[in-house]
Write a structure and sequence with these properties.
This protein is α/β, with parallel strands linked by helices and 365 residues long. The chain is 37% helix and 16% strand. It has a six-stranded parallel sheet, with helices on both faces. A five-stranded mixed barrel has the order 3-4-5-7-6. Helix 4 crosses helix 5 (129-141). Belongs to the class IV-like SAM-binding methyltransferase superfamily. Residues 1-67 are annotated as: Disordered. Residues 12-26 have a biased composition (Basic residues).
């Protein structure tokens, strides 16, 4: 046979063999799926779905990010303060407790919020205790050098100057260098990026084009060059915590009632363990308390009449008891000498009580 013809015949035979193998492969895929022989497109879709499912299973088996701890506080604690000054001091104590114990989120809930568009003139408009508490908590969490840009003048800020600073790691001094800094975006030319005020002697340039007046976290790195030639990058607020292990402040959220605290969680999977605190709760010594492994823990504190009243006043929790709402219900200060424990006291007592159980649960993650 002519060598050229032999080569052509061999090539034809090879193509026929490849075609047959592909056909058998599609048939095997179809039999596995329990249907008709799959086309190449159907096989590709099947492979894509399988790959996506496998990636999702890996993500669920090895979730990213550190576990979070949230606290819920009834805004009615502010209503009991006899003056604006005392209300401000109370808010400051709650903020300090959250920072000391590295709380990731504070949810302030309102048992009886005012009507959104209720009657009454401007003179009658008063913030609820919950709204007031949210405002002060957000103000205190914000680094001092950003407050003037992010918070307009308000009558409820009259006594904030009396409060001790949180002094959290993200409240960086002007003379200090940090790998990350909080900043606020500025206006101006955006041809090369966005200028950001990060509390230094000069504003820095980030590569992203962002709207003015937005709070951002900027990766500063180790290069201390502040000229526009050194372009920085805006990163997620979780980056400092994930990369350096630093506590980077708390988020604040308002909820109209207790059920809103639980149902409107900012976390996609919600809170996977919810704890209520009350003098009527179960008494367990902290060293003997075993919490389950968690991704997002929520600890709730009641108002003047406790969480039981908050449950009764919530129309979404009709007929439910504390044990129906909370996975665990604890008395963190048994044998108390006073008839009542104030919320700001309960926060410090309870967060210290939960420190070791939370640490042990984190080790089992």
């Amino acid at each position: 046979m002519n060598p050229a013809c032999a080569e052509a015949a061999a090539a034809k035979k090879s193509r026929h063999k490849d075609k047959k193998e592909k056909k058998n492969k599609r048939k095997d895929t179809a039999e596995h799926l329990g249907g008709e022989p799959a086309t190449a497109d159907e096989e590709a879709v099947h492979k894509k779905k399988k790959k996506k499912k496998h990636a999702k299973e890996e993500e669920e088996a090895d979730p990213k990010g550190k576990p979070t701890v949230s606290i819920a506080v009834a805004g009615s604690v502010i209503d009991n303060a006899q003056s604006l000054e005392l209300a401000t001091l109370l808010a400051g104590q709650i903020a300090r407790a959250a920072a000391v114990f590295r709380i990731d989120e504070i949810v302030v809930f309102d048992s009886s919020p005012p009507a959104e568009n209720g009657g009454g003139g401007a003179e009658d408009e008063e913030e609820s205790g919950a709204r007031f508490l949210v405002r002060i908590l957000e103000y205190l969490e914000t680094p001092q050098y950003l407050r003037r840009r992010l918070f307009p003048m308000h009558k409820n800020f009259k006594y904030v100057g009396l409060l001790p600073p949180l002094d959290a790691p993200h409240h960086v001094r002007k003379h200090e260098w940090s790998e990350f800094r909080e900043g606020v975006t500025l206006g101006g030319d955006r041809s090369k990026g966005t200028l950001v005020d990060v509390g230094l002697s000069q504003n820095v340039l980030v590569e992203q084009i962002l709207e003015q007046g937005k709070r951002v976290t900027v990766a500063m790195g180790t290069n201390r060059d502040l000229t526009p030639a050194c372009i920085r990058k805006v990163v997620p607020p979780s980056s400092p915590s994930e990369e350096m292990g630093s506590y980077w402040g708390y988020k604040v959220r308002y909820a109209s009632n207790l059920s809103g605290v639980i149902n409107d969680s900012p976390y996609k999977e919600g809170y996977d363990h919810i704890i209520g605190t009350s003098e009527h709760g179960e008494t367990i010594i902290s060293s003997e308390l075993i919490l389950p492994s968690f991704r997002h823990l929520l600890i709730a504190f009641g108002g003047l009449a406790g969480l039981e009243e908050s449950i009764e006043e919530d129309p979404n929790l009709n007929g439910k008891g504390a044990n129906d709402v909370f996975a665990s219900y604890f008395n963190t200060c048994p044998n108390q000498g006073s008839r009542t424990i104030r919320t700001e006291e309960a926060l410090l007592i309870s967060l210290q009580y939960f420190q070791d159980p939370i640490r042990r649960a984190g080790m089992s993650n």
